[in-house]
């Protein structure tokens, strides 16, 4: 089953409401994925302050204060550590790659689940609404958010297996469905040096797209290439610091609905997740067509 929600805000007056709106959307789809959940927020000034890089770690086996001290000694700058167990959020005034490298040196058993200049990813196991409130999502602000409720089918019920999958800078992907040929694609990527963190089929799609973007392909073309290479039944929502995109497989059997107004664009697995958005009564509401890529860019 699984449930996808995403909100791309065009009106800056709505930025302070991003977390509250996303939490309500997520809450409506808890029954589609009660196992675990994850959320990605772009532009929150606490989680991802301007002028600093942010890294999200999962299952760090070191206390937050100790990790912060180790990172400050390593990088010779002030490092903020936010404990949202099992996620730890770090930010510091260094390049994202430098903060990722330092995090891996000092917390080698932790998994990097998000990094960039505007993106914060948090994940956990349990009821999605309870997780959202425990993480503080309702108070988050920003210009874009994505969330996912998971019903595990391809891998174990763990926070590591939950979505979003974020494997490129300021990039994330959520997925409802399954890729039937993901192992063949994974082996091909591994032959080109790509390293995987999980057995989840969604990570294969995320790393395929990240590789295309790293090669200079735009997001729309990357998703068209994914449609050509991957088999299965899927609806994907892919976000980065500039764009918000939706694509479905050729049969489009996995549910999806999009609503668009001058103030925002939203996507969800079911309309009930969109029903409480401001101005939804006047929105253009439609079901995305099979294999067609829909992309909205940051204004």
Structure explained in plain terms:
The chain is α+β, with helices and mostly antiparallel strands and 299 residues long. The chain has two domains: 3-48 and 130-297, Aminohydrolase, N-terminal nucleophile (Ntn) domain (Glutamine Phosphoribosylpyrophosphate, subunit 1, domain 1), CATH 3.60.20; 49-117, Alpha-Beta Plaits. 26% of the residues lie in helices and 30% in strands. It has helices spanning 18-28, 64-75, 96-106, 128-135, 182-191, 201-214, 219-229, and strands at 3-9, 36-42, 53-58, 80-84, 87-92, 111-116, 119-125, 144-150, 172-179, 232-239, 243-248, 257-260, 264-268, 284-286, 294-297. A seven-stranded antiparallel β-sheet has the order 7-2-8-1-13-12-14, covered by helices on one side. A hairpin with a 3-residue loop joins strand 10 and strand 11. It is an enzyme of class 2 (transferase). This is glutamine--fructose-6-phosphate transaminase (isomerizing). Its EC number is 2.6.1.16. InterPro entries: GATase_2_dom, Ntn_hydrolases_N.
Largest sheet: 7 strands, antiparallel
CATH 2nd-level architecture of the largest domain: 4-Layer Sandwich
**Major β-sheet strand ordering:** 7-2-8-1-13-12-14
> Which secondary-structure class do the elements indicate?
alpha+beta
Proportion of residues in extended strands? 25-35%
Q: Which fold name fills CATH's third level, the topology of the largest domain?
A: Glutamine Phosphoribosylpyrophosphate, subunit 1, domain 1
Distance from first to last alpha carbon:
33 Å
Oligomer: single chain
For the secondary structure, the number of strands is 15
What average pLDDT do the residues reach? 94
- Please name the fourth-level CATH homologous superfamily of the largest domain: Aminohydrolase, N-terminal nucleophile (Ntn) domain
- H and E string: EHEEHEEHEEHEEHHHEEEEEE
Please mark out the parts with pLDDT under 50 across 5 or more consecutive residues, or reply none. Answer: none
Roughly what percent helix? 25-40%
What's the CATH C level of the largest domain?
Answer: Alpha Beta
Give the number of helices. Answer: 7
- Gyration radius, rounded: 18 Å
Catalytic activity: D-fructose 6-phosphate + L-glutamine = D-glucosamine 6-phosphate + L-glutamate
Enzyme class: transferase
Protein name: glutamine--fructose-6-phosphate transaminase (isomerizing)
InterPro entries: GATase_2_dom (IPR017932), Ntn_hydrolases_N (IPR029055)
